[in-house]
Structure formats: C-alpha cells, structure tokens
Write a structure and sequence with these properties.
Helices cover 34% and strands 16% of the residues. It is an alpha/beta fold and 233 residues long. Helix 3 packs across helix 8 (213-232) and helix 4 (119-133) crosses helix 5. The longest helix is centred in the C-terminal third of the chain and has 20 residues, at 213-232. The radius of gyration is 17 Å and the shape is globular. The termini are far apart. The structure holds iron/sulfur cluster. Iron/sulfur cluster (SF4) is lined by residues 10, 28, 31-34, 36-37, 43, 100-102, 121, 124-125, 128. Iron/sulfur cluster binds next to helix 4.
C-alpha cells in the first residue's frame, strides 16, 4: 500500500444537507478522502443512537469490522462490551465509532495485518468524527488508545499519563470550537453543546496483546468505572 504525505480529506465528501447520522453514514460510504478506501472493503461508520449518553472512540476498524461494515464486532469489540458492562455502563446508551473509518493493513500472504494509521489518515478522517459529534450530545466521551486520543485531543496528549482522569468536554478537545455547537432541529438551529466529560483509556486490543491480560482488563474496567460514576453523579 502506498504511503502518502497528504490527502484531500473527508470534508469534501460530507454533504451540507446530511443532518442525521444515517445520512452521514450513507455519505461516508463514498468517501475518498485518503487512500485507505482503495484496499479496504468498505467504510465502517459509527454505530448507535443519536441519543447515546456515552460515545466511545477507537482507532480504526479491524479485519472483521471491515468485512461486516460495523465497528467493534471483532475480538476487541467483544472485550470492550464486556468491560463496559462490568463498569456499570448500560450498553444501550453507547455510540461506538473510530477515528479512522477504513481498515489500514498490510498483506502477509493471505493475512491482512493491522497497520496503525498515520497522522495523514487521522487528519483526513477527522471531519467525519466532527460530523458525528454534530449529531450527538453525549454526557461522556471515552477515547480508546493513542490514535483516537491524537484525533480528538491532539498529538501531545498521552493516554499512559492521563488515563482514567475526567476532563471537560469539549474544552479538552483539540480545536474545541469544532464541537461546541450542536443542532437543535433539522432546520439548522444550533445551540451550545451541553457540558460533558471526557475520559481516555487504553484500546481493548491492548488488553488482548498484554502479557498480563487480567491486569490490563482490570485497568480498562477501572477507567470506565470512573466514567460510569460520572454518569451516575
Ligand atoms: S479513512 Fe476516512 S478519510 Fe480516508 S477514505 Fe476512509 S472515510 Fe475517507
């Protein structure tokens, strides 16, 4: 797969009249904002309801997500759902998405091996994340791993240092102005986004790769429990 230093970005593919998540999802299916669409099977857009109280953001779809067209349906997704449940967050209230919406991989024989997206892919795909947030009013935003943290919070944020810490949303975002206004109705009326909180933690795939999976899983649940308490409070 060819490396690129620049990409046109997703903005050009977001129709101004797309004012629902379904309309955004349909438009994202045709995105050519970076080269990742060429080798992946399909765009994997976010999944969940506009009324979701918790938005969880991962890195990119994996092999199974790419085949099914849905985020977090592979092994890491199953682990994440269990962790969300163990933390006391109602799975009915979550919206799941990724910072980058096409699967980046390299072929080794017949196997497709995950490759971390580059900055150019994160930047190119960010308009979709901003567009999703334009339809969402979460009480809690959970960033899963370094790639999602870079996409939302900027390149200097360190998940290892700040995981499990509640931060103000959208004030903690890189370019918070992208997230401060949300639509009130389909006629285009907007209002200030309700104050919410943000929490960073590890990506569930990091638990699957850990030498001590039990300890890594416990850490993930512990971080998510901080968020669950914030929701309850
Ligand atoms: S990764 Fe994002 S910006 Fe790149 S083609 Fe896919 S949807 Fe568009």
């Amino acid at each position: 797969m060819a490396e690129t230093d620049a990409a046109p970005g997703a903005q050009h593919f977001i129709p101004p009249q797309a004012d629902t998540l379904d309309a955004l999802r349909a438009a994202a299916a045709g995105c050519r904002g970076c080269e990742l669409y060429r080798d992946a099977s399909q765009t994997v857009f976010g999944r969940g309801d506009e009324s979701a109280r918790v938005v969880l953001i991962g890195e990119q779809p994996g092999d199974m997500e790419d085949q099914k067209g849905l985020p977090f349906v592979g092994p890491a997704g199953r682990l994440l759902r269990r962790a969300v449940d163990d933390a006391g967050i109602d799975p009915k209230h979550i919206y799941l998405t990724n910072a980058v919406k096409h699967f980046r991989f390299e072929l080794r024989g017949k196997r497709r091996i995950h490759q971390t997206p580059d900055r150019v892919h994160i930047t190119a795909c960010r308009p979709w994340l901003v567009a999703e947030f334009s339809r969402l009013r979460p009480d809690l935003v959970v960033v899963l791993g370094a790639t999602a943290a870079k996409a939302l919070l900027g390149p200097t944020f360190r998940v290892t240092k700040q995981r499990g810490e509640l931060l103000p949303w959208p004030a903690a975002a890189q370019r918070p102005e992208d997230f401060v206004r949300v639509p009130v109705d389909s006629a285009g009326k907007v209002a200030d986004a309700p104050a919410a909180q943000l929490l960073a933690t590890i990506h569930p795939s990091a638990v699957l790769r850990a030498d001590d999976q039990d300890a890594a899983y416990a850490g993930l649940v512990q971080d998510l429990t901080v968020g669950a308490r914030a929701l309850a409070g």
